[in-house]
Each structure stands twice: as structure tokens, then as C-alpha cells.
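Researcher: We're teaching a course module on how sequence relates to structure. For the next exercise, students receive a sequence and then see the predicted structure as C-alpha cells, so they can try to spot secondary structure elements on their own. Here is the exercise chain.
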Amino acid sequence: YKSTRVQEYKSHRLNHSKVIIKAGVYYSSPEDPARAALLTTLVKRYGDRYREKGLEQALAKTSKMFEDKPEAGEVLGYMEAVLQIKTETEPSAAAQLIILHKFDVDVVNKELLEHGEVWEALLAVLPLERILEDGAATGQRKTRVLQKLARKGFLDSPESPVLKKLLLRLASEAGLRESGLQPAELLSVLNRVERRWEPLPSSFPAAPDQCRDGRPRLYEDGELLSLPSPHRSLVVALSSLLDPAMEQVARAEGKVLVMLDTRATISTNCCWGAPGLACSRAMALTILSLKAGGANVKVFTPGSDKVKNIALEEGETVAGLEA
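Model: And here is the predicted structure for the students to work with:
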């Protein structure tokens, strides 16, 4: 629902009408009680007179106003569930609410994120693109699921139920198709996992690069943190998504001529501004993505006296072309 957007725009001191329009919560006619109930709650919640009372009392007032409108029951029930999950302290009860309402991790009481049972429920309902979303790359202030799991110690052991649930989600072909994730996005996530989420060069210019034990450092909410290495099975699972994701590449018809610099530095220099992402790997994925999109790709390398053609075989993989 729209409460987060309303809060964001309200912070810019816009009046109610402008907040409603910008947040996409448009006029609700009497024939649409559900939308009217949502709009009423938001206006009461973020109106100056109700600021101190919060969502709970705003929702109570709205529920009373719409008690004779059964069509508004679903949206009112959802908002009540949001209140409940934000204050719930019992992991099993929270897990049931998450499964029932498909809550995002940012809605859940932070204390509950210490429990594997809650994470298993979240991994069951979160879209794959949300699980793999990297706030550092997008600039959005959302909980970074993989990093949070690593920090909580849920990705260290192959026997971890949370890791097993995550691997099941990554193995789902349907989940990959629904996500629409592109090969380049997946490679970026894979590289970040392999590097234990090392900060990007421009992220924290004053931050030390490593902890005393050699692990990379990470800043979050002003605190300096270090992340343990996830189990190798996570890297393998992410790597296995690169080639199937080629089916989701947008059409790129035309002819593309690629001339590769095959000096030894192609496998040691970094590409895309990402530490640790070898140019050879980025090159292989880019070429195969173009080919998967329908482009006529021809690849050449310089030789001693003339250029040499590299034939792209059917079924070529990113790992094979990189090698």
C-alpha cells in the first residue's frame, strides 16, 4: 500500500492534497470503500492533528467510520496486520503473519530478524528480485536481505535451514522467470557475495579497507561492520542462474563486432567499476547477452599478423567463454 510514499512526501512539507496526488492515492468515490478506507487512514495518520497518535488510533477511527462497509474489510484487516507484525515478539506468530500477508522484511519488527523461523517465512514469500536486491547499487534504503542474513550468521553452515530455504528459492525456474532479472544484475549480485559485500570504491572514501583479520569492512547506519563469508553453495547457486537468465534478455537485433584485448590483464583488471569483477567475466556475459538477444555477434582477437575469429558455439556458457 501507499503509506511509505505518503510519509516520504509528507517530509517535504506538502499539503494533504499534493501528498495524495504525488503518492498515487487518488480520489476515492463512495463506490470504492476499500480505497476510501485506505485514503482516510493515511490522511488521519499523517495529518498534523494525528501525528502524535500514530497509525493505531487513525486506523481505529477509520474502522469505526467504515464498519458498515464490508468491502473495506480486506484493506482494514491488512493495516491491522501491519500494526501487529510491527509489535509482534513471538517468532512463530510472526511467521504465520508473514506467510498470510506476504510482508516485506522492512515491515517486520527488527527484533524478530534474529530468528531463523522468521527468515524462512520471509524467504518463502519475498520475490526473488527483492531477495537479491542490493541497496548499495540502487541507492535505496531498504534492508539488503543477503547481507542481513550473512551478518546474522544464517549463511555460514550448509546445515542452516535458512540457507537451505534460500537455495530452494534460487533453484526455482519459475521464480527466475517471474523476477525478470537480467544476467548483468545477477553477475553483480554474485560478485558482491564473492567479495563479502565489500563497499564500492566511492561509497565510503574514509573507511578502512579491511578488518584486522583481513575481512572487508562495511558501513551501515553509521556503524562499521564486517561480514563472514557465506557458504560456497550460495556462490554456486548464484552462478548457476547466469546462463538461464539469458532467456530474459531484451531483443538486440543487428550486427555487433567485438575485438578483444586478450592480454593477461583481462583476467586481473576489474570491470563495471566493481572490485573483483574480472574484465574477462564481464566480457563473456556481455557477449552472450547480446547473442541471446538476437544480435549477430562476431568476436575477434588480435594475432601476430592478422585478427583471429573466435567462434561462438551453441550452448556456450559464461564460464566456458570466460575460460
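Model: If you want an answer key for the exercise: Residues 135 and 142 are 6 Å apart (CA to CA). The beta strands are 217-220, 223-226, 255-259, 296-301, 308-310.
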